[in-house]
């Protein structure tokens, strides 16, 4: 068991994964954590059993909160439109939750970026009747085997049905179910494929993974992400948000303006502290030991990213 793979998993997830593996009787915790890409393997396992919370927002918009990326569902006479599609192993529970909203057929899917916890259900959604729309870099990454160094995992090219059939570069507007959806590409942030989706009339805003509500975010340096880009996108979200806007983060609870400001401020604070320590000549291990994120670790470091992992991504980019 390497220190790295242990550090990749929070205690909560460790307990969950160990329980699942033991219940399945197929793999011992020792074997599980011998895997270098334990974080991704653990996400697959957790998504297979994690419950989905269904939360109605405004007008005809519902959000599904589970182990992977948050899914928004727009219902109406044109059929259901989904924003993101979760981890592939969550597909049966996503299908059940989406069907539970009403009888509208699934017609469209928009991916906020290419990551496996947002596009894993693409093939399932396509088979269910959805055409898929995304930023062009999402299609580019899904078409080929893509290594994410931060997760120590190489994702194989997606099956043909999972590839977005329509892509755009910077901005795209579409209309469905009496709703205007304004899609906008961020400058490289969490990846190079991130978009936001604004449901204009309802003023509901899905940020994809440019916003993690009270969770440290992953930063995918392998496909264009960076800490500076993450903060630049956080600034753009703060500039966009209105007092009444409902904001759906990529991960974490549905929030609003104050949560976006808190995220931006927390990202900036930790980057400045890490940069100052690095400038003094401290190694990554020494920076982690100095606990520059201590103020928020208890709340923000319990999810996908542990404090040590998050500090590693920040250190890499400062
Ligand atoms: Zn992501």
Kindly summarize this structure in a few lines.
The protein is α/β, with parallel strands linked by helices and 318 residues long. It has 13 helices and 14 strands.
Task: Please tell me what the overall shape is.
Answer: globular
Strand content: 15-25%
Low-confidence sequence ranges: 1-33
- How many strand units? 14
Structural class: alpha/beta
Ligands and ions found: zinc ion
List the strand order in the largest sheet: 1-2-3-4-5-6-9
* Residue-averaged pLDDT: 91
Count of separate DSSP helical elements: 13
Series of H and E elements: HHHHEEEEHEHHEHEEEEEEEHEHHHH
Helix content: 25-40%
Largest sheet: 7 strands, mixed
| Rg result | 19 Å
Distance between the termini: 29 Å
Please supply descriptive tags for the structure shown above:
disordered N terminus; 13 helices; globular; 40% helix; seven-stranded mixed sheet; 318 residues; 14 strands; 19% strand; alpha/beta; binds zinc ion
Question: Secondary structure elements and their pairing?
Answer:
Layout: H1 3-7, H2 11-24, H3 29-34, H4 38-49, E1 53-56, E2 61-65, E3 71-74, E4 80-83, H5 91-101, E5 106-110, H6 116-119, H7 122-128, E6 131-135, H8 136-142, E7 146-148, E8 153-155, E9 166-168, E10 171-176, E11 179-185, E12 195-199, E13 204-206, H9 227-240, E14 246-248, H10 257-279, H11 284-289, H12 294-300, H13 307-317
Parallel strand pairs: 4-5, 5-6, 6-9, 13-14
Antiparallel strand pairs: 1-2, 2-3, 3-4, 7-8, 10-11, 11-12, 12-13
Helix pairs in contact: 2-4, 9-10
This protein binds zinc ion (ZN).
């Amino acid at each position: 068991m390497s220190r790295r793979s242990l550090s990749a998993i929070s205690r909560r997830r460790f307990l969950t994964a160990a329980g699942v593996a033991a219940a399945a009787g197929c793999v011992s915790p020792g074997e599980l954590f011998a895997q270098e890409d334990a974080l991704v393997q653990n996400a697959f396992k957790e998504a297979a059993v994690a419950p989905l919370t269904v939360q109605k927002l405004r007008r005809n918009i519902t959000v599904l909160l589970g182990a992977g990326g948050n899914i928004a569902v727009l219902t109406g006479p044109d059929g259901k439109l989904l924003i993101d599609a979760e981890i592939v192993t969550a597909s049966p529970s996503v299908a059940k939750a989406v069907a539970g909203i009403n009888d509208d057929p699934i017609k469209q899917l928009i991916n906020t970026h290419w990551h496996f916890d947002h596009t894993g259900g693409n093939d399932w959604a396509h088979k269910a009747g959805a055409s898929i729309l995304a930023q062009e870099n999402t299609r580019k990454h899904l078409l080929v085997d893509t290594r994410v160094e931060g997760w120590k995992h190489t994702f194989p090219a997606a099956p043909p049905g999972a590839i977005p059939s329509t892509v755009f570069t910077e901005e795209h507007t579409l209309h469905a179910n009496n709703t205007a959806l304004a899609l906008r590409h961020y400058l490289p942030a969490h990846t190079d494929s991130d978009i936001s989706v604004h449901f204009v009339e309802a003023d509901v805003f899905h940020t994809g993974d440019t916003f993690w509500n009270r969770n440290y975010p992953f930063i995918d340096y392998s496909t264009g992400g960076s800490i500076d880009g993450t903060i630049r996108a956080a600034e753009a979200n703060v500039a966009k948000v209105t007092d009444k806007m409902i904001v759906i983060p990529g991960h974490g609870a549905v929030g609003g303006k104050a949560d976006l400001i808190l995220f931006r401020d927390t990202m900036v604070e930790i980057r400045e502290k890490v940069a100052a320590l690095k400038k003094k000549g401290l190694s990554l291990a020494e920076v982690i030991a100095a606990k520059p994120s201590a103020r928020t670790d208890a709340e923000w470091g319990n999810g996908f990213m542990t404090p040590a992992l998050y500090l590693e991504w920040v250190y890499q980019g400062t």
